[in-house]
Amino acid sequence: MKSFLFTTLLLAPLAVVQATDTPPLRDDAAWLRDKGQMIFHDAFEREEDGNLAKAIGNGWNSATAGRVPQIKMANLDDGILKIASATKEAGHAAHIHHEAGFTDGGVIVRFRFPGLSQGESLQLGFVDRETKGVHAGHLCYGILSQSSITLIDHKTGIMNLENRKRREDYLTRKEKPPADFEALINSKKVVVPWKADTEWHDLVLVNEGDEMRLSLDSKVVASHHSEGYAHPMKRWFSFLVPNTVWIDDVKIWKVK
Predict the structure, then answer these.
(1) Cα–Cα distance between 205 and 152 in angstroms, integer?
(2) Helices (H), 27-177
(3) Is 242 a domain residue?
(4) Nearest to residue 76, comparing CAs of 103, 56, 51?
(5) Which of 19, 71, 189, 237 has its CA 20 to 30 A from that of 62?
(6) How far is CA 70 from the centre of its chain?
(7) How many of the other CB atoms lie within 10 Å of CB of 210?
(8) CA-closest candidate to residue 253, choices 60, 98, 38, 103
(9) Which domain holds residue 78?
(10) Is 181 helix (H, G, I), strand (E, B) or coil?
């Protein structure tokens, strides 16, 4: 088998918050195939062209490559996209994105933590830079760390400009945010335990109405309802990688 610093989000400490409902027994890869249309596929069977923004080819772009053009953060090797973020040098995690364009739909990604750096993690999800009132268009993400998986609605959570300013004001004054504000922010995410390894995994991340779901190896491991997931246009699919991750295959599907 073929083988933005992870953006500091100014979040409250991530407590483990279990979903109120057990994740449904369903096959979201089959849902995408049966109900949707595949609008993009990349198996990375080529060589990249240099280190700059469009070097990966096939429509991929990097928001961070130009910060350190002398350092290669994405390497195509034997059909694998090997991401090694120059986070310290760039002052930002490697941020790689591709056009998407759907309301409901999702992505299927084959990935691996190669074990080349400590604390390997992967953030992947959806962006709409045309959205007003949301920092950098950040909509919603799945985040895989060494010990947990997070689903998070940024559009109506901490990346909402009003919420972001309110939190920054508390930090500037060195005040603890009030309980109602913390409760609001915490309601915009769900965190479930997960133990990372160095094996290949098939990941499915979908948006269906106001729900986001993440599956690993054909099993839904996290689901969460929040109004931001229903944003009508997920224009970009993006990876944010603070260290090292290998990507073997990416498919983007549109259901509507």
Answers:
(1) 12
(2) 28-35, 87-90, 161-172
(3) yes
(4) 56
(5) 189
(6) 26
(7) 14
(8) 38
(9) 28-254
(10) helix
Question: Mind listing the pLDDT tens digit for each residue in 19-75?
Answer: 444 555 789 999 999 999 999 999 999 999 899 999 999 999 999 999 999 999 999
Rounded Cα distance, 34 and 8, in Å: 37
Q: Give 83: exposed, middle or buried? Use CB within 10 Å, 0-12, 13-18, 19+.
A: buried
CA distance 204 to 38: 13
Determine, yes or no, domain membership for 170.
Answer: yes
> What is the amino acid identity at position 174?
K
Which amino acid would we find at residue 165? K
**Which stretch of DSSP H or E encloses residue 186?**
helix 179-186
For 89-145, what is each residue's pLDDT tens digit?
999 999 999 999 999 999 999 999 999 999 999 999 999 999 999 999 999 999 999
Give the CATH number for residue 243: 2.60.120.200
| Closest to 94 (Cα-Cα) out of 5, 176, 178 | 5
Spatial distance between the Cα atoms of 212 and 115, rounded to a whole number of angstroms: 28
Q: What distance in Å separates the CA atoms of residue 43 and residue 53, rounded to the nearest whole number?
A: 19
pLDDT digits (tens, 9 = 90+) for 213-246: 999 999 999 999 999 999 999 999 999 999 999 9
Q: What is d(CA 112, CA 109) in angstroms, rounded to the nearest whole number? A: 10
* Residue 66 resides in a domain: yes
* 248 within a domain of the structure (yes/no): yes
SS3 136: helix
The tally of domains found in the chain comes to: 1
Q: Which residues, other chains included, contact 181 with Cβ-Cβ below 8 Å and sequence gap of 6+?
A: 163, 166, 167, 170
